[in-house]
Amino acid sequence: MSVLEDISVDMSIVLGSTQLPIRQVLKMSRGAMIAFDSGQDDPTLIFVNGTLVAKGHVLVEGERMSVEITEVMPKGATI
Prior knowledge:
Residues 4-73 form the Flagellar motor switch protein FliN-like C-terminal domain. The chain has one helix and four strands; from the N terminus they run βαβββ. By secondary structure, it is mostly beta strands.
């Protein structure tokens, strides 16, 4: 397994998403609120190298945030 230890992967934790017209993005200023397509109880999506691999929930402990994996997705799963 030591051969795998130095391989980097791109991991993304997605809380939600939305689509906005560029004109709306350009009008935003500090403190602007963006509504997502998901609620606070919806699962967080975990992508590795652009592939959905798991779902989970965000945990906050003091100043630290983490994701608890609640479901590992089958190969080829989509949103």
